[in-house]
Amino acid sequence: MVSVNPFQEFYAECETVLKDALNRLYPAFPLPSILLEVPPNLEFGELAASVCFELAKHAKKAPRKIAAELVQAIDVTGCQLVESVQAAGAGYVNFHVNSETFSRLTLESIRELDAEYGYVKTCEPKKILLEHTSVNPVHPIHIGQARNPMLGDAISRILLNRGHEVSRHYYVDDVGRQSAVIAYGYTKLGKPKPEGKPDSFIGKIYTVTSCIMEVQRLKKAVKTATLGESPKLQRQLDEWASISAEMEKRFPEIFGQLLDAISRDSDPEEQVGNLIRGYEAGEDEAKQLLREVCQLCLSGFRETLSRVEISVDSWDWESDLIWNGDVNRVLDALKKTPYVFEENGVLEFDAEKVADDLDLKNVLGLSDDHELTPLTLVRADGTSLYTTRDIAYHLWKFQRAERVVNVIGMEQTLPQLQLKLALSALGHVDYITNPLRLQSSSSSWVPNVQPQRTLHHPRRGYGWSS
Asked: What is the pLDDT of residue 431?
C-alpha cells in the first residue's frame, strides 16, 4: 500500500470508527461536518474529537461520560494506523497513531511515488486564472517586489499538482503618467538601443526624466508663488536639486542629453499629457511609441523571471481594456447606478454610499464610523484611473475562469476595497459576502457570464528607487 497523503489515511480510519460508534449509540444525533481536529499537544494524540460537548445537550449527559462510552464502543481491530483511543479531559476522544506502521507507509510511499508524493489530486479540477507580479513596466523588478512572483509561482505549481488547469497572467499597467514619462524621455534621447539589461535602461530613463521635469516644474512654481507658499516650494526644490545632482553623477551621459533636450521644451508636462491622452485614445503614433518602451522593459522582466524559473502564460495589457471598449462599458454601467456623481468635471464613485446601502462595512471588516473615500473614475481631462480599468480587468478575468487568484501588494488595500464596492454596485455583491464565489447578475453589462469563484488577495506592488 502506498499513499500520497498517509495522514489522510489515518484521519479516514479515525473518522470511520468514530462515526460508526456514534451511529450505534446515538442514531438520532446529526453528525457535525467536522469531527476531528489536530490537538495542540502530541500527548493528546494526533487527532481529537470534541463532539461529546455538542452531544451532551442532545443526550442530557456529561461530556466526559459520553467520551468514555464512545471509547468503549469504538472498534479499532480493523485499523492499520490507529493504535489506541482514549477519553481525556472534560470530554475529548483522542486518537493515537501507530508510529511504526505510519512511518513505514510514509517512507514506502515516498520511495515509490517520488516527486508525486504529497500532491493530493482534487476530485473537482477547476479552470483557474492566477495573476501575479504585475510590476509597472517602468523599471527593473526590485527586491521589494520579489515576494509576489515567488508566492504566485508557488501557488500556481501547487494548484497544477493538485490537478487544476492553471493559467498564469501578468497585468501590464501601460496606461498613465509613468509610461508616458518614459516615452517622452525615450524620444528626447532619439529612441536609443538599450545598453545592458533593457528594463534597467528604461528605469534610468524614467528616473532621470522624472527628476529633471520635477526640478523644472518647481522652479516655475517658485517664481509665481505667494509669500506663504514660497518657503515650502523652495524646500522641495532644494531636495529635488540634491536628487538631480546625484542623478547627474550616476548617469552623466543620459542626464546631460535629457537635461539639454527637456530644457529646450517649453512645456514638458503638456507633452507628457498629450502622450497620456493620445495613448488612451488609441492614436497610432502614441500607441507605437508607448508599446515600444513597454515591450523593452517587459523583455527585461522576462529575463529576470526566467532566471528563477518563473513563467507567464498571458501578458494582459491594460490599454487593451480601453481600446476594446470594456472600460467605457464599465463606466456606462456605473453611471446607471445611484453611486456616481460629477464634481468639477471629475467623475467620482461614492464608495461610502454603496457600503451603507448594501450594509457591507461589517463584511469588509470596517467599523460603522469608518468613512470610505470616493473613488475617482475619470479625471477632468477625460482620462481614466487605474482602479477604473481594474474593474474592467476583473470582469474580463471572471469570464475566463472558474476561479481567480490575485497575488498583490498590501499597499493596494484601499484601491482593492473601492474595487470590491464598485463590483458590488454592478450587482456582484457576492464578491464580498462570499469571497469564494462571484455570482453573475442581470444588472451587470458582462454578457453570458456564468457563476464564478474567486480567491482575492491584496494587489500589485509599485515603485522603484534608483
From this structure: 65
Cross-strand pairs, 408:
459
Displacement of CA 181 from its chain's centroid (Å) = 27
d(CA 170, CA 306): 14
315 forms beta bridges with: 170
Contacts of 443 (CB under 8 A, 6+ apart): 426, 427
Alpha helix (H) residue ranges in 251-382: 252-263, 268-281, 284-307, 318-323, 326-335, 351-357
Q: Structurally, what CATH architecture does the domain formed by 6-116 represent?
A: 2-Layer Sandwich (3.30)
Distance CA(280)–CA(227), nearest Å, equals 39
Q: Is 459 helix (H, G, I), strand (E, B) or coil?
A: strand
What CATH topology corresponds to 324-455? Answer: Rossmann fold (3.40.50)
User: Which among 157, 168, 166, 165 is positioned nearest to 115, based on CA atoms?
Assistant: 157
Cell representation of residue 388:
477604473
Q: What separation in angstroms does the CA of 132 have from each of 60, 147, 171, 393? A: 54, 10, 8, 14
CA-closest candidate to residue 287, choices 254, 259, 252, 317: 317
What is the Cα 270 distance to its own chain's centre? 34
The rounded Cα 398 to chain-centroid distance in angstroms is 14
Q: Is 335 exposed, middle or buried (0-12, 13-18, 19+ CB in 10 A)?
A: middle
pTM above 0.85, yes or no: no
**If the chain, 466 residues long, is cut into consecutive pieces of 10 residues, what is the mean pLDDT of each piece?**
94 97 95 93 95 94 97 96 96 97 97 91 94 95 91 95 96 96 98 95 97 96 92 96 96 97 95 96 97 98 97 97 97 97 95 95 90 94 92 94 88 88 89 47 30 35 31
> Which long-range contacts link 366-372 to residues 24+ away (Cβ below 8 Å)?
372/417, 372/418, 372/421
Q: Which of 210, 237, 209 is nearest to 223 (CA)?
A: 237
Using CA atoms, how far residue 18 sits from 6, 70, 80, 372, in Å, is 19, 8, 15, 50
What is the Cα–Cα distance from 208 to 249, expressed in whole angstroms? Answer: 11
Domain range list for the chain = 6-116, 177-307, 324-455
Cell 468635471 belongs to 345
C-alpha cell at 423: 463590483
Q: In what order do the strands lie in the sheet with 127-131?
A: 314-317, 165-172, 127-131, 403-406, 453-455
Cβ neighbour number for residue 354 with a 10 Å cutoff: 23
At residue 446, the pLDDT reads 33
